[in-house]
């Protein structure tokens, strides 16, 4: 009896997590970004990062962090905003495959949950939600649509994450003849 209760409890928790991730709306989107550069780690609002991505305007805190990390704000902004066109239906199908899981695992080395748990599921939800909005995905959209209150971003690897999104776009085009 005790075994069945634990098993049922695990299933209910799993169903709850899945519902939270896939039924997420901007109301459940990330509010804070923990930006990591080597040993530097700073918590910023998603609004600060979004303003920078959209306008190029750096908040004082973000300006200091990028300077300390010796990062070029123009390059960071480009990686955050460069869109990758993708069909949301095909993206969802691809991300639920073995190759999709590999891509999700690679990108989740850059954009992840603070606990490092359910990264694949959270990232899949953010990608599909981003693609549903306008038929394209950018790193800033993924951050905005991430289904946890806080999202960790490894700034040193942003360029690699962008390249993974580009590869995903190419793989989808090859796979589905788009």
Describe this structure in words.
The longest helix has 21 residues, at 2-22. The strands form two sheets. Strands 2-1-6-4 form a four-stranded mixed β-sheet. The protein has helices at 2-22, 46-55, 60-68, 73-81, 88-95, 98-107, 119-134, 139-145, 158-176; strands spanning 32-37, 40-45, 84-85, 111-112, 136-137, 150-154. A hairpin with a 2-residue loop joins β1 and β2 (40-45). It is built from nine helices and six strands, in the order αββαααβααβαβαβα. α7 crosses α8 (139-145). It has 178 residues and is of the alpha+beta class.
List the helices and strands and how they pair.
Layout: H1 2-22, E1 32-37, E2 40-45, H2 46-55, H3 60-68, H4 73-81, E3 84-85, H5 88-95, H6 98-107, E4 111-112, H7 119-134, E5 136-137, H8 139-145, E6 150-154, H9 158-176
Parallel strand pairs: 1-6
Antiparallel strand pairs: 1-2, 3-5, 4-6
Helix pairs in contact: 5-7, 6-7, 6-9, 7-8
Structure at a glance:
With 178 residues, this protein is an alpha+beta fold.
The gyration radius over C-alpha positions equals 17 Å
Q: Give me the strand/helix succession.
A: HEEHHHEHHEHEHEH
> What is the strand tally?
6
* Assembly classification: single chain
What's the arrangement of strands in the largest beta sheet? 2-1-6-4
Poorly predicted regions:
12-16, 19-27
Mean pLDDT, to the nearest integer, reads 82
Q: Could you say which overall geometry the principal axes of the C-alpha atoms support? A: globular
Strand content: 5-15%
The secondary structure category is: alpha+beta
Number of helices: 9
How far apart, in Å, are the first and last alpha carbons? 52 Å
Percent range for helical residues? 55-70%
Main beta-sheet annotation: 4 strands, mixed
